[in-house]
Amino acid sequence: SQQGEEDPQALSIQEGENATMNCSYKTSINNLQWYRQNSGRGLVHLILIRSNEREKHSGRLRVTLDTSKKSSSLLITASRAADTASYFCATAFPDYKLSFGAGTTVTVRA
Amino acid sequence: NAGVTQTPKFRVLKTGQSMTLLCAQDMNHEYMYWYRQDPGMGLRLIHYSVGEGTTAKGEVPDGYNVSRLKKQNFLLGLESAAPSQTSVYFCASSVRERPNQRNEQFFGPGTRLTVL
Question: Residue A21 pLDDT more than 70?
Fold first, then answer.
């Protein structure tokens, strides 16, 4: 069974706006990772946050993790057309074994 | 570096036929994985390997076999294909699990398989 569930399933925003998506999971994790998938391509790793961390930043990405609520959020600031993709959260336990959610499809309108 | 490559990119099989998907990585990664991706379901782990000569079952292993005879290659076999195995298959690799390291997975471009 899949560990992570993303919300919303789909998101449409205007270029320059922020995009926020959430991930909830069920069991203990070592870390939580976010991946991006462009249409017809493989997944690309975006950011990893460990279970003892609460927030991480990478460029225009901000990830938060609340282990008490078993949830994470990914914020993409100042979105661009190139950010149009599907975004997946993946929980890791142990570190090398990932369980993916069904993803959030983000469309950035010019 | 090519990263993770998969062959073939596309394949159409008839029910009952067999085939092997090949994954190769040139990053000297210890761990390798096979996933399938179906519409609306994200990725599900089929089998994985933590080193040359080792394999283990993932979430959905039935109907598939794997082999890791060389560190850089991970083969996924379908002995008797079924329409339920129509999917996009992704291979991935990662370094050995280490504390405080980026244990990210690197993905190949995928193989789109249709079983009629």
Answer: yes
